[in-house]
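Researcher: Final request for today, and then I'll write up notes for the group meeting. The sequence and the SMILES for flavin-adenine dinucleotide follow.
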Amino acid sequence: MESRASQQDEVSRTIARVKADALALVCGLIGGLSLFVMTAWLVLKGGPQPGQHLQLLSNFFVGYSVTWTGAFVGLLYGVFTGGAAGWLVGRMYNAVVDARKK
Amino acid sequence: MSRESSVIVGAGPAGLTAAYELGKRGMTSTVLEASDQVGGISKTVNYRGYRFDIGGHRFFSKVPLINELWHEILGEEFLLRPRISRIYYNQHFFDYPLKPMNALAGLGPLESFLIGLSYIKAKFFHIHDEKTFEQWVSNRFGYRLYSIFFKTYTEKVWGIPCHEISADWAAQRIKNLSLKQAVRNAVFGARQGMDGSTLTSLIEQFHYPRFGPGLMWERCRDLIQRQGSQTIHGVKVERVRHRQGLVDCVQGRGAAGESLEYDGGHFVSTMPLRDLVQVLDPLPPDDVLKAAQALRYRDYLTVVLVIDRESVFPDNWLYVHSPEVKLGRIQNYKNWSPYMVPDPSRTSLGLEYFLWDTDEMWTWSDERLIELGIRECAQIGLIDPRDVKDGTVVRMEKAYPVYDQVYQESVDRIRRYLETFSNLQTIGRNGLHRYNNQDHSMLTGVYAAGNILGDKRDVWSVNTEKEYHEEERATQPNAGDRLVPTCVAVSVDMADAAVEEAENAVIEGAFARIDPLALGVAVGAVSGAGIFAASAVLLLSGGPAPGPTLSLLGNYLFGFDVTWPGAVIGLFEGGLVGGAVGALAAGLRNWTLRLYAKIVQWREGRDDRRHLLDKM
Ligand SMILES: Cc1cc2nc3c(=O)[nH]c(=O)nc-3n(C[C@H](O)[C@H](O)[C@H](O)COP(=O)(O)OP(=O)(O)OC[C@H]3O[C@@H](n4cnc5c(N)ncnc54)[C@H](O)[C@@H]3O)c2cc1C
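Model: Predicted protein-flavin-adenine dinucleotide complex:
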């Protein structure tokens, strides 16, 4: 049992649960927008071979390139990948919290 | 008198409130008052048109019910007054609460420097086992500041050396809010006063009846009279007769020395606990009598001087720390309310002396006391004795119940004994031997009336630790706070309780902790799987040397490269790193919220520490 003193010393005794859908949305938006902005920045900066490293993402994201079209394709991939990661983190977090409660 | 009616001893705030509440619910009572005035310690004395209190009585309460009662009784007669108070020490006035620049100017650079050093010393060489008031205050403010701003005044008020006063006593005066309560105050604001203003602002300003607190109690007496109850003055209760756990009647002596007897169905006493025990007939067992005899009270007298000057100083009151005078505090009643003086070109000052009734000074004649007052005021440079046109003295016995080492045990013993009576309740400040303000005393009156009508309220819980438990519906330590009465358990006000519960729920949700292990596992699993999947994609898509760029991760993940064994290593190591990052993020987030709560809690305590003198 928790000591009385430690109970008093808490603002909240609740363990947060995460809304996986909301986390997916947030991570998806961050992922998509980040990839879009990173691509767009390189395109705008220009140069002989813009974004040769970022370009390597096409190994994973078929159709992606460091071009304006690629930026929009990246946006979709980023949303999807970030969303999936967020959703997975959320679900797993809740599962572990539930398991620890039992 | 009907067996159903109640007899209430004492027409102070507690007794009158009990009678008023009973009257509102259709039950009459008889209030017996020894003196010729209502209000008890909260009375207002009228001397040739000059009105003054016993001390000065600020009206503010965290208890909504009491704020409502005050309004109900006094209507629009309240003034909202700014609070100005200073400390007089060593021929200087210091703003109180202390302000750094003002204190620096008053103390001079050398003394300020020494105070700074002593403060730093207190922080580094903290006295760990704080036992005395002196140690407690020195630990927080440094010994030098303590000896200038706390020692003399505290000793004047309580008549006990600070190194003999228990440290708990000081600690009890500081709000010991739980983290949650502190955050709730910060997020939703503290409890509100009579007109919705917050309590913090009410420390800077306060409500005061136009003609002093006595006006409230005179109105209350008139109201209970209209309800069919009566207040009988000049009856000092000297015997409380009882049989088999029931009080039959009280006997008193009238102003002309005649013996009077009052019976009733219920009895409520606001007389000092010590006196009540001693007038029980038959007397209680020896241990209870001894416990009663052990209760001590500090007495008080005020010398009122009428000064032929429109203004003497702008403060409501001055704390007098100068050790060369006996004077503890000076009230300037005109600054409490301009209606307190009949002639605006004059000022009346109340010089407050704290004494034991066994002190020789207690027996001095009024003339001698007035002379002393004039001399001391002149000595500290406040007045010219030639300006004093008149003066009077008011003595108030048992103004302060003393919290010494044995009082709690004595009170508990008496309480256990009194609980064997089914129709006798003791309430109020001295009735409970508790350092209550008017609002606390009134609340005990409300509870007592409720109990007579069938409720089950614990009058002893008002202004104590327990009430906080009820308020918070969780345990948390504190004790009665005299100056800022904390919200007591007014379960009567259900709406308030519901709001509080809703606020608590919001805080529970907003400050819910993220489980570091769970987040670690989740982020770890997703990161590990991500690295594995990325490696696998590259390996499956083939090529002579797949994934040269991803292989750079090998700089961080020991043994990782884009091969199938490398992918497995990536899965585990990535998982571990991700796990650590997740757990760290959760920990940091929890820690930040806790830090925020701690800062808020510290700030609340700081406000209390700054007003420590007010709570003496
Ligand atoms: C210096 C000072 C400053 C204060 N400042 C404030 C303030 O700013 N704000 C605030 O809210 N409170 C303040 N208080 C506290 C406030 O005065 C008390 O809380 C309040 O008056 C207590 O009310 P009561 O009814 O419990 O007791 P009392 O006021 O003591 O009333 C008890 C009554 O019972 C009568 N009585 C006693 N024995 C008998 C007997 N045997 N027979 C018949 N009658 C009897 C007494 O004559 C008295 O009238 C202050 C107190 C002091 C001493």
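Model: The first strand of chain B starts at residue 6 and ends at 9. Chain B has three domains: 6-79+205-294+406-481, 175-202+484-616, 297-401.
Researcher: Thanks, that's everything.
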